[in-house]
Amino acid sequence: MIARRLRWPPDAGLMVRQLTGAWVCGSVLMGTVAWGFLSSEATAVPVPVAGRGPLPAPCPGSGTPCLYPSFFQLTPLGRLAVLALVALLFVALAVLGWWTAGASWLTGDPRARLLWVLLVGAGGLVGWSYAAVVTFAAGFGATAQLILAYTGGGLPFALAAGLLLRPWRANVLAGAMCAGLVAAGFLMVAGGPAPQNVFALYAEYARSFLSGGSQPFLFY
Question: Quick check: 68 and 44 in contact, CB under 8 A?
Answer without folding.
Answer: no
